[in-house]
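Narrative progress, year one. The postdoctoral researcher (J.K.) led the effort to move from monomer predictions toward full complexes, under supervision of the PI. The following entry was the first complex the group processed end to end, covering 390 residues in total.
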Amino acid sequence: MVERGELLYRTNEPVRTIYAIRTGSVKTYVLTTNGRMQITGFHIPGELLGLGAIAPHNFTTEAMALETTMVCEVPIKVLEAYSRKIPSICQQMLKILSQKIRDNQELMLLLGKKSANERLATFLLSISQRFRRRRYSPTEFNLSMSRNEIGNYLGISEETVCRVFSRFQNEGLLATERRQVQLLDLERLDNIARG
Amino acid sequence: MVERGELLYRTNEPVRTIYAIRTGSVKTYVLTTNGRMQITGFHIPGELLGLGAIAPHNFTTEAMALETTMVCEVPIKVLEAYSRKIPSICQQMLKILSQKIRDNQELMLLLGKKSANERLATFLLSISQRFRRRRYSPTEFNLSMSRNEIGNYLGISEETVCRVFSRFQNEGLLATERRQVQLLDLERLDNIARG
DNA sequence: CGCAGCTTTGAACGGAGTCAAACTAAGTGG
DNA sequence: CCACTTAGTTTGACTCCGTTCAAAGCTGCG
């Protein structure tokens, strides 16, 4: 159980456990030597955290709770014990790391090649799809992260995030009241996201 | 043996073999549905290609030779056979995927948070370090990729790449004649790269 | 030689950043 | 319970970095 703003782990810390999110949400990010931050992911219940650092043995990212969050901690020792008994565990872990690589590739494409409109549309649809998979409403949800955090993640300023939200609202693509969002035209959002 | 411009593999193709580069160089990239491209890495002798796609079983990136390149192909079957005999192979693969995730995190930081100057300085120093590790000169080398490809990788236009090269040359940080580069002040470049 | 591709530089434009200010919601403590 | 504080959101005005468009120069190859 961690409160908003608390860290699950920090950069360079040895990896002792990995985390499964039960409730709440978490952001992960990397830091430059001079303190700049790039958020690399937002994580919701059902997702695993920390596996990406399992081979270097030290965390390369930091994880902070966006709200009160319940996590299930799995000690590395336990994981190793299982993987000796069941070799397919290693296959599973390869699969999870592969998925992470693909997610990162998508984010790089966004950061390197997309406009502000395309970035926010992509972001909202990605949230929508993850909620759909978990049987939450894919069109009406509450964002647990601030405009600032969205902007950081998407590589744009928080003001630009606000402006794009306003534009989308004026064009009837969505309705938003602070962090409450209702997607009104998924198809058109999809067209924008694809560029 | 592949010639400049030839593909080692393409997106969605099933993964039958992975590749070790012997000589030459290769770029890997992801594509959007509408054909935009983001280069995700340049690869030099000694590096492995294709492992990132081992779990989804289909390539998510494409790999193209930047020049005449010799690769050693390792069939997945062989890899699997070994990994049944030697479990530590799986650990090795986890390590390689972890490294790839860290590389991608660094690139995301660059794409999301760095200026054009910082991007090119970071890029040149990264090349420099990789050459140093392979016992090539870390200060004098020949780039195998075009300005256009550098720009695509760094998320800036080819013209901006040219302009930053010119700036750096005027400030005595490096000397460049087309693709031949000589780094003259690693320390100052490092300061720029850190931002 | 002549062409095609790559590189370089200039000029003008524009999207997003920055700075600033008004507004809102949510705490917090008296 | 309410005044006050604080964090977050929104909008406007201006600026600037990097893009785009255009043109000229260079290089290597057929």
